[in-house]
Amino acid sequence: MMNGNMFGHTMWAGHWLWMLIVVIALVIPTWRICQRTGYPGWIGILILVPMVNLILLYFIAFSDWPTDKKGARNE
Question: What is the 3-state secondary structure (H, E, C) of 33-49?
Answer without folding.
Answer: HHHHHCCCHHHHHHHHC
